[in-house]
Design brief:
heterodimer; A: 3-stranded antiparallel β-sheet; 11% helix; B: 415 residues; alpha/beta; FAD/NAD(P)-binding domain; D-Amino Acid Oxidase, Chain A, domain 2; 2 domains; globular
């Protein structure tokens, strides 16, 4: 089980959280992008082997949404990731 | 290839069983192949087999990073069924199930197909309604299923508790010709067949690069050197996103660990497969007597072939209410595999943005049952360069067209 660092509640068990998926691209204005770019936004999420930025929701806690960087192989949550999402 | 038969067995009995030989050759890569299939799991080997059998393409290499059948083919709970809601799914899964019926004879290799019946439990009113809808859909597509009352279910599966209280059983969807098979044997049987006609199976050979010439692939770089190919087919389940990235395109997939466990062996208590979708618990009894239990997927995407503790606990906790008899059983083994999930929980059998690369992935949590049908459809796609009737609905284009084949609603869970 993961020990996830909530910005308010500090380290809590994974079971208190709801996974929000990898952080994808920001929602573009559908009127300004091509169909391909829109489909890309709707269907593609990052699926790397290694560190990935992802959203979590402290649903059974303080209700906060936040972003962590987790390694998808080792489950290690990186405190000082090299780049921002 | 030495033919397996009663006669061969008697003959070898007088020869101290020294003459059997290896079931398939361990090959080293040649300079060039007509078709290279990446991934020697069930789907990859089946694709190679039907390429040879249906289309006469036998200049084929199946390359594998690890060992043959060591990924999800060797990690699933071996359930075979075809009671899907959507017409496209029912077509390919029923094709697959019907191929399983005669696969042992066809391959001359005992895959131990056991059509013992699959029972899908309805544990909420909504699930009961959804299963009835599936039952009617199955009738229309010619997939043989029937609805079963709780009373009849108790007769069929005496160890089941139908009274709840949390998850009472309101009915069930019964597919009498569903069942199980020996998962490793499916991979081994296909491997033996393709090896006998000269296709190469190359294990411990990881793809490290893909060399493109204009819009086509010319060769692949591997840990065993560079290999040229005319056509390339990716059949690598959870690693599909990584290979696609090497080839220069992206896929609408998320990789996640799915896990299973077996109990210690006990005497026969249950002669069919039971699937409890509401609680993500799938149980059957192996020929060795172990209760084989499949659970839900992990809560977050990952590539650790391990699985998380809390999800296995959730599965077992819920199943104990339905099967009180398993509460004192000890767990013998637990393992995980990486499955590739699409948004609509249906597979991808498709052409790709690269002209001569073909793709078979996205089987998510239910790929084993589809192995023969998937191989059949993918072989057709690779041989002709265009999908046949079975594969066409499962193209990548469906994500652009919004033409989803929504099995996530049909099954209410990952399947």
């Amino acid at each position: 089980m993961l020990l996830i660092h909530c910005p308010f509640c500090k380290n809590r068990n994974e079971t208190e959280f709801v996974y929000g998926g990898p952080v994808g691209a920001n929602r573009p204005d559908p009127n300004l992008v091509s169909d391909e770019e829109w489909v890309d936004y709707l269907t593609m999420v990052p699926n790397p082997m290694g560190p990935v930025y992802e959203r979590w929701w402290h649903a059974r806690g303080c209700d906060q949404w936040f972003i962590i960087c987790r390694d998808t192989v080792t489950h290690e949550i990186l405190e000082n990731p090299s780049e921002e999402p | 290839m030495k033919k397996y038969s009663a006669f061969a067995l008697v003959k070898e009995a007088f020869n101290n069983h020294l003459g059997w030989g290896r079931a398939w050759r361990h090959a080293q890569p040649k300079k060039r192949y007509k078709v290279i299939i990446v991934g020697a799991g069930g789907h990859g080997l089946a694709t190679a087999y039907y390429l040879g059998k249906n289309f006469g393409i036998r200049d084929v290499a199946v390359i594998e990073k690890g060992w043959l059948g060591g990924g999800n083919t060797g990690r699933n709970t071996t359930i075979i069924r075809s009671n899907y809601l959507q017409e496209e799914s029912a077509a390919i899964y029923e094709k697959s199930r019907s191929l399983y019926e005669t696969l042992s004879q066809e391959l001359n290799y005992n895959i131990m197909f056991s059509p013992r019946g699959v029972m899908m439990l309805c544990q909420t009113e909504h699930e009961l309604r959804a299963m009835k809808r599936t039952y009617y859909a199955n009738r229309l597509f010619g997939v043989q299923t029937e609805m079963v009352s709780p009373m009849r279910m108790k007769e069929m599966i005496p160890i089941i508790n139908t009274d709840g209280p949390r998850y009472p059983i309101l009915g069930g969807l019964w597919q009498p010709r569903g069942g199980t098979a020996r998962h490793d044997a499916v991979a081994w049987g296909y491997a033996r067949a393709i090896s006998s006609w000269g296709a190469d199976i190359i294990e411990n050979c990881e793809v490290t690069g893909i060399v493109r010439e204009a819009s086509k692939v010319a060769s692949i770089q591997t840990t065993k050197g560079s290999i040229d190919c005319e056509k390339l087919c990716f059949v690598v389940a959870g690693s599909s996103s990584l290979l696609a990235e090497l080839a220069g395109f992206r896929l609408p997939l998320e990789s996640v660990a799915l896990q299973a466990l077996v109990s210690e062996p006990i005497k026969p208590v249950m002669d069919c497969v039971v699937m409890a979708n509401t609680v993500h618990g799938y149980m059957s009894q192996s020929d060795k007597g172990e209760m084989v239990i499949g659970g839900g997927a992990d809560g977050c995407n990952n590539y650790s072939q391990r699985g998380s503790f809390q999800h296995i606990e959730e599965t077992v906790r819920a199943l104990i209410e339905t099967f009180p008899i398993i509460s004192r059983l000890r767990q013998l083994r637990q393992w995980g595999g990486i499955v590739d999930m699409t948004g609509d929980r249906s597979p991808i059998i498709s052409k790709t943005p690269v002209e001569n690369i073909f793709l078979n992935c996205g089987w998510g949590t239910g790929g084993f049952k589809a192995i023969p049908g998937s191989g059949w459809a993918t072989a057709e796609l690779v041989a002709h360069g265009n999908p046949g009737k079975l594969a066409a609905p499962f193209s990548l284009a469906r994500f652009v067209e919004g033409r989803m084949i929504d099995e996530s609603i049909a099954a209410a869970v990952a399947h």
